[in-house]
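Sample intake sheet
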Amino acid sequence: MSDKPLMPKATAVWLIDNTRLSFEQIAEFCGMHPLEIKGIADEDVAKGIKGSDPVNAGQLTHEQIEQAENNPEVRLKMAPPKYKMPHIKQKKTPRYTPVSKRQDKPDAIYWLLRNHPELNDADLMKLIGTTKATIAKIRDRGHWNTQNIKAVDPVTLGLCSQIELDFVVGRAAHRKPRLVRKGGDGMKSIEETTGGQASVDDGANDGE
């Protein structure tokens, strides 16, 4: 059983609107990043999502919230569930998108690239039902309709559900970071890309 709310963004919306908890406290309880919580507070993320009351859901108590409001060091903990939810096995079937919604995919992809950089291409392909080539074109601003593409939440567009989005984002947040080459940008040196030819040529030129 997860120790995080079933609908973390909706829960975060409610906590932001109804409590004096810090972004860090809300982020840790909801399993999100503090900057994402700030984005929700600024209405840059999860715009239009209705708040979910964790107290009525039995996930928190008023006493816990008051204690955390009075002490920023206190961290909220999920209350034991009253009922056990049956395990639902995720079906591994290709996502079908109606023709009427396909024109909205670039907007959704652009929104995800801006707001959830932790998602990789495979995550976007499964969530939206797009291709790696399309993602690359939108990321590099090489899409044929780039000038008209605007960032729109895929949930608002009806391309996925809030639960599906939260699941993919939560999984990506717990993914181990990939090793990056020394230097930070991951680019190869000239010697690596030319197979040492550059150094040979330089040596030849020096001898002239």
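Comment: The two ends are 73 Å apart (CA to CA). The mean pLDDT is 78.
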